[in-house]
Amino acid sequence: MPDIIQLLPDHIANQIAAGEVIQRPASAVKELLENAVDAGATEIQLIINDAGKQLLQVIDNGGGMSETDARMAFERHATSKIKEIEDLFRIKTMGFRGEALASIAAVAQVEVKTKRAEDTAGTYIEIENSVVKKQEPVATINGTSIAMKNLFFNVPARRNFLKSNAAEMRHIVDEFIRVSMAYPDIFFSLTANGQQMFHLDRGTLKQRIVQLLGNQYNAKLVSVEEQTDYMNIYGFIGKPDTAKKTRGDQYFFVNHRFIKSAYLNHAVAGAFQEMIATDSFPTYVLFIDLDPAQVDINVHPTKQEIKFEDEKIVYAFVQSAVKHALAQFSITPTLDFDLDPTIQHLDAVSKPFTSEQKSQASSSSLYNTFTQKHAAHKIDPQQKSELKHWREFYEPAKTTDDGRQTTVGTSADFSAINQSKIFIPEQEFSQQHNTYILASTAKGMLIIHQQNAHERVLYERYLSAADGKPIAAQRSLFPSTLHLSTADAVLLGELSDELKQLGYLIEPFGKDTFVIQGTPADVEQGNEAMAIELLLEQFKHYTSDLKFSKREKLIRSLAKQHSIKAGRSLTQKEMKQLVEDLFNCAQPNSTSNGFPVYMEIKKDELEKQFGR
User: Fold this and answer.
1) Residues 6+ positions from 12 with CB-CB distance below 8 Å
2) What Cα–Cα distance (Å) separates residue 178 from each residue in 140, 212, 248?
C-alpha cells in the first residue's frame, strides 16, 4: 500500500493559513495600518474601492524597505520584530508574527512600492498567489505603498461568503477607528470610492476622540489619569448622560493595542454603578501602559485577546482610576449633611410647645386617624368617601339590554388556551403603574405588560412587511435632517433598503448627513432624527448575536424602538386595541427576545393564596 501522507504545496499552505489571519477586507486593513505605524510613519492614507474587494491600499511615509526586505516581507514567518523566544515578552510593536503580508499575498494580487530615505530608487514588486511576478526599480517617494487587489480571487468560496459592500465597509471603518484612535499624533485619512470619509489631523487624544466619535462628546468627556509603579492608566470617560444601550463607544488599549476584555468592561461598569441605567453602557477610551512582560498578546492571530499576568490588580486599578475621575470632576453625587442655620430660628424649633397647643393638636381629626385602632392610618368611614364602592370592583359584570358588559368583571376567557379563537369582550380595562393592563377572564385574570405586548404586535407586523407586504410611508411636511458619525452613516447606508421596505424614506444629503422624507404611517410624528439614532443603537445591540440575520436584527430593533414604553398612560380605547392586536398575533405569549408578555392568574390560585 503506497504512502498517503504528503507535504502540501506552499501556495495551498499559505491559503489555509491566510484563512485564520485574513478573514475579510477589514482584517487586511488592520494588519496594513499596524505595519505602517510600526514603520514610524507620521502620515498614513487608506484607500478603498468596492469595500476592499477590488482595491485596498495603504500609503505611509515611514522608513520604507530595501529591495531584499521588500521581497522577504512576504515570506511566511518573516519578521523584523522578534529574533528569539524571549522577545515575545518584550514586544512593543503592533505586529510580530510575520504572517500578515504572506497571508495577504496568498489570497490577493499585491503591488508594493517602497523606498528608504538613503536609497536613490525604490523597489516595485508584484505578487500573485504567493508567487513574485515582477520585481524592478521604480521612482517613488519615501515610505511604502501596498495595494491589495481582487481579494480572494483564487478562493471564490471565501469571496462568496463576504457580506454586502455596506456591511464590509462598516467593519473596515471599525478597524480604521481602532488604529487611528490609538495614535492621535499620526495623520490618518480614509477614502472610499473616491470620497474622503475621514481626514484626521494630528492633535491631542481628546481631539482625535471628538473627530472619530462626533462633536457631541466635546463637552462630555472626563479625563482619567493615574500613574502607579505597576501600570499607568489614562484617557477619557463619558459623563453618565452619554451612556448608550450598546457597547459601541468603548475602547480599551493596552500598550496602544486595541483589545477586547469583558473583564475590564465590568470594571468600568462597576465604577458607574447607580449612575447609569442597568441596561446602559458607559462611553470610554482608556489606555493602559505596563511592562510587556506582564502581558501575553500571543493568544489569538488578531491579537485583540490578551492575558494579564495579574488581571485582578489591573481590574482594581482600572475601576479605582475611573471612580477617582468621576469624583474629581464632581460627577459622583455627594450628600451634604451640614445643617441649615435658618432652621434653628423657625417657630417649631425655637418656641416651646404649650399645653394649649398640645390639646389642640391631639383633638384634631388628623391626629385621631393616626392614633386610633393602633393603625398606621385609619380611614374615616364617611358616606362621601370615594372608597365606599370598593365592593363593586369585585362584583361580576352586569349585562345591559343590548348584551354589552359594563364592568371590569367578565365571563369571557381570552387566555392563550385557544389562541385561534380568542374573544375580546367589551369590558373596562384597568392600567396599573402606567405599565400593566389588567383584564378579567372566566378562570381568573390576566396581567399584560403593555410594552412587551406592543413589541410583539410590532414585531409580527414588521415581519410581514419584510416578507413582501411593505408598510405604508407617511411623508413629512417638513423633512428633518440627520447628522451621524461616519461609522453610523455607513451602518445606515447598509440598512437603507430594508428601512424603505418598513416605511422609512431616508435619502443621503452630503457627507454623513441624511434627510428623513417619511416614516411609517403608524409611527408618531416628531423627532424622527432621534428615533433613527436610537434605532441604530438598538441594532448595534444585536450585532454580537451571530444567529440573527441582518433583517431579523433590524425588525427586532424597530419593534423595541417603537413599542409603547412602560410608564405611559393609555386610554380605554388604546388598551382595548392593544389587547385585540396582541391576541391576533401568531405567538402572543412572548416577545421576540423571549420575555413574557402576560401572566395568567387563575381564580383557584388566588383563593388558595387567601386560604379559601
Assistant:
1) none
2) 29, 10, 12
486-501 and 550-562 helices cross at what angle (nearest 10)? 90
Q: What's the rounded Cα separation, in Å, for the pair 57 and 49? A: 9
Query: Helices (H), strands (E): how many in the chain?
Result: 18, 22
> Confidence class of residue 215 from pLDDT cuts 50, 70 and 90?
confident
CATH 3.30.230.10 matches 210-329: yes
Cα gap 450→106, rounded to integer Å: 56
Residue 76 confidence (pLDDT): 67
* CATH 3.30.1370.100 domain locations along the chain: 430-600
**CA 71, CA 253: separation in Å to the nearest integer?**
32
Which CATH number among 3.30.365.10, 3.20.20.300, 2.30.42.10, 3.30.565.10 corresponds to the domain 10-200? 3.30.565.10
Which residues are paired to 122 by β-bridges?
138
For 204, other C-beta atoms within 10 Å of its C-beta total: 10
Domain 430-600: top CATH class? alpha beta
Model confidence over 79-99: pLDDT tens digits? 555 455 454 445 555 544 557
Q: Which residues contact 487 (CB under 8 A, 6 or more apart)?
A: 170, 173, 174, 177, 248
CA distances from 472 to 171, 504, 518, 541, 574 (A): 32, 9, 10, 27, 21
CB atoms within 10 A of CB 111: 18
Q: Sorting pLDDT into bands at 50, 70 and 90, what band is 406?
A: very low
Residue 491: is it exposed, middle or buried by C-beta count within 10 angstroms (0-12/13-18/19+)?
A: buried
pLDDT of 347 reads: 59
Locate 81 and state its grid cell.
520584530
For 291: left if phi > 0, alpha if psi spans -120 to 50, otherwise beta; the answer is beta
